[in-house]
Amino acid sequence: MDSLNRDQVENEVMMLETSKEGSKFYSYVKYVYDSTMTATFKQANMKSQTNFDFTGLKNAKVKFSVTKKYPNFSTILRTEIGSTDLLLESKDKLVWKITPEKDEILGYKVQKATTKWEGRNWIAWFATALPIQDGPYRFFGLPGLILKLEDAKGDHQFNIIAIKKSDEILNQKINFGKSPTEILVSEEKFRNLWADYKKDPAKDFRQTLNSNTKLSVSVTFDGKTYNGDEMARQIEKEGRESIISTNNFIELNLYK
């Protein structure tokens, strides 16, 4: 969200999948995007294809995902800076204050609770009839599932739209480990990487491009084809635009 243009509200469908082992919170749009990209590149490798057409493929606004491991609720934030996949692990507990106010959401009786976390004051509504001490993003620890969550300024809101019980996990097995491409970082290291990215958003892409000078790659988005150098310039342009417009993060303290 752009704090300078608060009238421009952005929405995205998110999924919170829970199991006996833990939970995963992620963008459904990103799930579709990643699945399509993976299938396309897998097929391309089989055919030695170097031109890719992703016209019409919707990109996600929300890139991060969060996993929580039960019962201690160790939390892993999976996010990215440029093309670098990062993991931030936390075992911190949120300190909630449960208040008397009550309401109803999707037919469930809910109660209000508040907490201060990562530079914001948060308001949550939880349902004791759903005995899952979980919620959206990195929030948990109330005596019931969090059905609504927002910060006091209304910059970020999480509103439940449906609840479904299923034996089939959409995003397959919840991964609590680290993949070979992911880097586990501290908050301090994350801030340093963020500062470097703001200086040159296309740095990672250029390094990848220059590492294999024999490979000629072209990519088509929305009917327009880019070669490697054009793609680098486009990534830098879009990166700088995103840095300017995306300035109101959920965790204010993380992007200082």
What does this structure look like?
- By secondary structure, this protein is α+β, with helices and mostly antiparallel strands.
- It has one domain.
- Helix 3 runs antiparallel to helix 4.
- The longest helix has 20 residues.
- It is globular.
- It comes from Frigoriflavimonas asaccharolytica.
- InterPro entries: GLPGLI.
- This is GLPGLI family protein.
How does the SSE layout of this entry go?
Blueprint: E1 14-18, E2 22-27, H1 28-47, E3 51-53, E4 65-69, E5 74-81, E6 84-90, E7 97-105, E8 108-117, E9 120-127, E10 145-151, E11 157-159, E12 182-184, H2 187-199, H3 203-211, E13 218-221, E14 224-227, H4 228-245
Parallel strand pairs: 3-13, 6-12
Antiparallel strand pairs: 1-2, 2-4, 4-5, 5-6, 7-8, 8-9, 9-10, 10-11, 13-14
Helix pairs in contact: 3-4
Helix content: 10-25%
Strand content: 25-35%
Main sheet attributes: strand count, strand direction, barrel closure:
6 strands, mixed
Whole-angstrom Rg: 20 Å
Return the domain count: 1
Estimated structural class: alpha+beta
The geometry reads as globular
Distance between the termini: 16 Å
- Quickly count the helices: 4
Question: What sequence of helices (H) and strands (E) makes up the elements?
Answer: EEHEEEEEEEEEEHHEEH
Biggest β-sheet: strands ordered side by side in the sheet: 1-2-4-5-6-12
User: What is the average per-residue confidence, as pLDDT, rounded to a whole number?
Assistant: 84
Q: Tell me the total number of β-strands.
A: 14
Q: Point out poorly predicted stretches.
A: none
